[in-house]
Design brief:
By secondary structure, this protein is an alpha/beta fold. It contains five helices and nine strands, in the order H-E-H-E-H-E-H-E-H-E-E-E-E-E. Strands 1, 2, 3, 4, 5, 6, 7, 8 and 9 form a nine-stranded mixed beta sheet that branches. It is globular and about 40 Å long.
Length: 209
């Protein structure tokens, strides 16, 4: 697994062993940050079901001011901390071991990324309900393409969906944000002969020092 773009582009990061975490596919992660490119610089970004921390680390690489990584698995938290030390960004990140539904409360975030295990469908509603008390301007939910999330959760309105095979990203803006408008849905097409991670010919990855 590697960082796709920004300051740490091509740096390899570790992932937790086993099947307990499901990393966001590289091409979907690339599409996510293409959408966020005008909003990520200087933002406070919360990766609420962090796994390896790949999405949060990508946010740091793209210029986020601070990242909060929430993960309930102790082994995964150990991997996140190892990745942060390897990239020397400990001072720009905070790692919380525990439930997103508990620790999202009171987070002063600009952007929140939700990616619970797909079978825990009720987790989306729980997280949106907690976030409604102090709504960030943008929430992105990764979910199964077969699972239809609500268009509205409290103050959050879906305005865009990106779909790649079995995985989708739904973008929700809090009421009053300028991004709210007619909802659009886009499919992320595979690119023949192109690296799934970077959109460029695959020239290998630079290992973390």
């Amino acid at each position: 697994m590697r960082i796709i773009g920004g300051e740490f582009r091509h740096r390899i990061i570790k992932a937790p062993e086993g099947q307990d975490t499901r990393p966001t596919p590289d091409r979907l992660r690339e599409a996510l940050f293409n959408v966020l490119q005008t909003r990520i610089e200087g933002a406070v970004f919360v990766d609420a079901h962090a796994g390896s921390g790949a999405v949060g680390l990508e946010a740091l690489s793209r210029g986020a001011r601070q990242v909060v990584l929430i993960e309930r698995s102790k082994p995964a938290v150990a991997v996140i901390k190892e990745n942060l030390r390897a990239l020397k960004v400990d001072g720009r990140a905070r790692v919380i071991q525990g439930s997103a539904g508990t620790y999202l409360a009171g987070q002063a975030a600009d952007i929140v990324f939700l990616d619970p295990p797909y079978e825990r469908v009720g987790e989306y509603e729980t997280c949106f309900r907690v976030l409604a008390d102090k709504p960030p301007s943008l929430v992105i939910a990764q979910h199964s393409s077969r699972e239809k999330l609500e268009d509205v959760y409290g103050p959050f309105h879906r305005y865009r969906t990106l779909r790649q095979g079995d995985n989708s990203l739904s973008f929700y803006s809090s009421v009053g944000d300028n991004a709210v408008g007619a909802e659009t849905e886009d499919a992320i097409a595979p690119a023949d002969g192109v690296s799934e991670a970077s959109g460029e010919p695959d020239g290998g990855a630079e290992p973390v020092a």
